[in-house]
Design a protein that fits this description.
The complex is a heterodimer of chains A (111) and B (111). With 111 residues, chain A is an all-beta fold. Chain A contains no helices and ten strands. Chain B is mostly beta strands and 111 residues long. The chains are: A mainly beta (111), B mainly beta (111).
Chain lengths: 111, 111
């Protein structure tokens, strides 16, 4: 039931771009994205609802293709503050708010 | 705004001991969740609740119990602690189609 995230880890220089992918084997209602810094709680980034909607948060945006059951997170012109582990949490609609989190993608941004 | 409050923040238990992890939210959310996160891994759902008096098992419920007597509180009980339960525990709350709000976590070691 867990989604598959790729890549598992990314190392970037400040200003470079990255894409994190999330795939599910089940039909999806929405996808949540969270970022977690070491030793801290996950922090919400955005929710993508059905319809292929693309949303943005500063220079971070995401897309959701419900037919392919995939979502991608785009980090543009990365900043040092983007470092952390990114989790996708697909929502299957009928499961009363339950999210099935992936194992995460560890992003490290160097100056 | 307090959000989701977890206590204690750290705890060391001996094998076979029991304890209760406390979680309180002040956002009047119906849905509440308990996750555990092992090092380098994603979040695994232990138990969840969709309202006072209603709870259900998640992916890894063995060795744990919960209750939800009020909208605000969702305590997690560990009976007969085992080393495999060493982990970081996060409580979260939400309403439908909203982000999950996480507490700061409880770091639990069982020796």
């Amino acid at each position: 039931q867990q989604p598959v995230q790729s890549p598992q880890a990314v190392i970037l220089r400040e200003g470079e771009d990255a894409v994190i992918n999330c795939s599910s084997s089940k039909a999806l209602y929405s996808v949540h994205w969270y970022r977690q810094k070491h030793g801290e709680a996950p922090v919400f980034l955005m929710i993508l609802l059905k319809g292929g909607e693309q949303k943005g948060h500063d220079k971070i945006s995401a897309s959701f293709n419900e037919k392919k059951q995939q979502s991608s997170l785009y980090l543009t012109a990365s900043q040092l503050s983007y470092s952390g582990t990114y989790f996708c949490g697909p929502h299957r609609g009928s499961t009363l708010g339950r999210l099935y989190f992936g194992r995460g993608t560890q992003l490290t941004v160097w100056p | 705004n307090a959000g989701v409050t977890q206590t204690p923040k750290f705890r060391i238990l001996k094998i076979g001991q029991s304890m209760t992890l406390q979680c309180t939210q002040d956002m009047n959310h119906n849905y509440m969740y308990w996750y555990r996160q092992d090092p380098g891994m994603g979040l695994k759902l232990i138990y969840y609740s969709v309202g006072a008096g209603i709870t259900d098992k998640g992916e890894v419920p063995n060795g744990y119990n919960v209750s939800r007597s009020t909208t605000e509180d969702f305590p997690l009980r560990l009976e007969l602690a085992a080393p495999s339960q060493t982990s970081v525990y996060f409580c979260a709350s939400t309403d439908r189609n909203q982000p999950q709000h996480f507490g700061d976590g409880t770091r639990l070691s069982i020796l």
